[in-house]
User: Fold these one by one.
Assistant:
Number 1:
Amino acid sequence: MHDVSVVIAAGGSGRRMGGRTPKQFLLLGGAPILERTIAAFHSLRAVREIVLVVPADCVSRAAAIVRRAGFRKVAHIVPGGKDRQASVFNGLEKCSFRSGIVLVHDAVRPFVRRDTILSVIHAAGRYGAALAGVPVKDTITIESPGGSGFSSRTLRREELWAVQTPQGFHFALLQEAHMKARADRFHGTDDASLVERKGTRVKIVHGSETNIKITNPDDRKLAEFLLGEGRTLQWRPKAAPPRAR
Ligand code: C5P
């Protein structure tokens, strides 16, 4: 079993959601989104430490959530950078289990499933790098340059995956990939793309359609709905009364 460190990227300001509170701190069914996301990883035995990366002015707010929920595996809460990549870089610097696997996860994906996390850990151990993703259902087209409003090229859907987190890596591999991206001034929107640039293949693991990224107000409504669905699914009918003879 690998030692697993988890970096939770919660350093965004969440401007697309509107309002002043970053979306990862908004309540979902009475608990902050960030708390729900941490809980998904905290309960796994392989997870040895969790490093939270949050906006610089939210460190004490995050610490209060961690204290109240009793998340003992949260080893560090560090300030984020100017983009996601810079935030993850800050988180990696604080990880202790450098011979193991590191998972990177978006704080705003609280519905990540246990089996997805375990599959990513397993595939990262075996292949060095893995990501959770789902096959794309929509047809994806590229707009012609300059925001013309016209499509210029439509991609072959059969080859496309929507990339999610968690993504998992041998620690040294991800750290090298981040160093290289930094040196090349390359900015990616996820970690797997940095590893691909180094020439390492990233194994795709099936995630789930419900592992949504809560980005805008509509996503938040969908999240409330998914939470309700989860509760409904957990509901069990009472045992039927014994039949009268
Ligand atoms: O920017 P995007 O929507 O892809 O954000 C995905 C995750 O990255 C979010 O959980 C967000 O808080 C985090 N992030 C970060 N530091 C930034 C920007 C985004 O940790 N500077």
Number 2:
Amino acid sequence: MSLKILSGSSNCGLAEKIAKSLRIELIQRILERFPDGELHVEIQESVRGSDVYLIQSTSPPVDEHLFELFLLADACRRAGATHLTAVIPYFGYARQDRRSRGREPVSTRLVADLIIASGLERVVVVDFHGHAVESAFTIPVEHVSAVSILAEAVRPSVDKDAVIVSPDLGAVKMAERYAKLLDLSVAIVHKSRISGAEVSVQRIVGDVRGKEVLVVDDIISTGGTIEKSIKSLLDAGCSPSGVKVLASHALLVGPAAERLGKLPIEKIYVSDSVPAPERFPVPLQVSSLGSLLAETIQHLYRRESLGDVLVRE
Ligand code: R5P
């Protein structure tokens, strides 16, 4: 059975890197809009009998990228692909995994259902927001991580007494993984969310006085979480120099540039799960997920164990 890689439009650069690592060409496809705005997709080579991996981050514009994923998957299924896996480096809608205020949908679950309905039989996700993502699916979810890649990127510039900071309770497990890899201690910021773009900080658990801080999170969206965390860490007496931020997914939308540009951040370390903005007021160091995702695909294609690749927590 042949291995084929198909890319949506969300992150062609990363898809090219994955294909290059696997020494194959991306499948040619057409993605176009009809005059009425409907999306039309067409696969331009045979996928019959193939093991197809569809690369698509469901990053902004989230709904457009999701719909591309559905149509590309349906096209592959109807064209006779034997196996169909979605590689979703950034999985959108992961944060809407419950009804927190009442008359709301459980969007994570609905998106999972739609992905399954489009014919996909397995998904690969990088640093999903929470385990609710895996629970939402009735098909296998392979969870891989950018943490070790970003830890290696930051390692040469980390002080030996630096502290890894989790900006909320949800990122504690991730902070512990960074701390283990870099042999550092962990502090936790106690955050609550006021709205989609606003958060407030209650207190910091752990000693940061005089220390360099590395704030780690799965996602930077509007930058509100990182902004409030860094402000409260500075108030708590952390070293104002050497402040670093590490995040798997750099959405950097809305007021992110304005918020983060005002802070004494030395550098933000991110993956290429989402294409980085061309200009940003804080230095961004982007590490590619290309080799990790190529290795994951290779293991899946060969039906080999993913033991060394998957996140265990
Ligand atoms: C939420 O729990 C996530 O882990 C991130 O902290 C959050 O999504 C970041 O969003 P923003 O940058 O808009 O605060």
